Amino acid sequence: MDELPILTADDKLAEIKRLYYRTSQQTIKEDLARAVRLLKSMGSEEERERAAVYMDGLSQMRSDWAQRSEKAKGKRQK
Question: Does residue 57 lie in a domain region?
Answer without folding.
Answer: yes
